[in-house]
């Protein structure tokens, strides 16, 4: 097995099972149908990693945004109690349409809990291996297309643009059909990088520093080098509205982890340049862990990259 075949195998480990993706999208559809049934809801926006097709396995949650008619709730968007009121309205909407038992559209939600910005809806039983939730966030649409979203904790509404990241990921995917797949690989890497890193941090870093290459190994090497150099400046909302994505991020620890990965990735590229695929695979295994395939029988023969695999099951929005 050569390096490119090893990356193909590794991608199958990283990607969510197609059946899990189908089930998540079906639950997403049920929620959208229920939310759209409310007269005061003008649109329901898909958000989160499922909307961007950058989710990993297991799929824990789905994010949705219920955009309300401001004329129906004229006090929303103002500082004060309206943020909590909006969450209560969403909670009651979910209870009436999706509660298990008694929902008018489906009996899917066993518990709905208002959090700071969204109502967390628990779908699976508590003892499920990977409990599935749907977060429904109320919002108002601004004239410029951005959204006003509530913060119960701060009794205020903030401007956000989650659709910006969705559109940017789609644009890069259109240019390079491996972009989403490589984002998922990087999100997988962050799980064992040695410090707590939110998945959205990695997606934002990928947006900034992952080149649109047809050669996956070289694109990843360039990413690790550039991200390690720049991450000390912090990681901010790509839409430029919400500030740092993870205020408590240990940027020094992440810098060191990215630097170590960039060193191993560079050695992997150099080994591949010498037609030593076995050494290249071992270096990539140091980057991504034991799930990255090791060379078989110490094979160090060169490999010709196969045609790029399509990012099919998760690529459709």
Radius of gyration: 22 Å
**Share of residues in helices:** 40-55%
CATH architecture of the largest domain: Orthogonal Bundle
The level 1 CATH classification of the largest domain is Mainly Alpha
Shape verdict = elongated
The percentage of residues in β strands lies in 5-15%
Low-confidence stretches: 299-310
Write structural notes for this entry.
A hairpin with a 4-residue loop joins strand 3 and strand 4. The chain is 45% helix and 13% strand. The two termini are 33 Å apart. It is an alpha+beta fold and 317 residues long. The protein has helices spanning 3-14, 18-36, 48-52, 82-98, 162-175, 179-190, 199-209, 216-230, 251-273, 277-288, 312-315, and strands spanning 41-47, 61-68, 111-114, 119-122, 133-141, 147-151, 156-160. Helix 7 packs across helix 8. Strands 1, 2, 3, 4, 5, 6 and 7 form a seven-stranded mixed β-sheet that branches. The protein folds into two domains: 3-15 and 165-315, Poly(a)-polymerase, middle domain; 18-160, Beta Polymerase, domain 2, CATH 3.30.460. The model is unreliable at 299-310 (pLDDT under 50). The protein contains eleven helices and seven strands.
Write the layout of secondary structure elements.
Elements: H1 3-14, H2 18-36, E1 41-47, H3 48-52, E2 61-68, H4 82-98, E3 111-114, E4 119-122, E5 133-141, E6 147-151, E7 156-160, H5 162-175, H6 179-190, H7 199-209, H8 216-230, H9 251-273, H10 277-288, H11 312-315
Parallel strand pairs: 2-5
Antiparallel strand pairs: 1-2, 3-4, 4-5, 5-6, 6-7
Helix pairs in contact: 6-7, 7-8, 8-9, 9-10
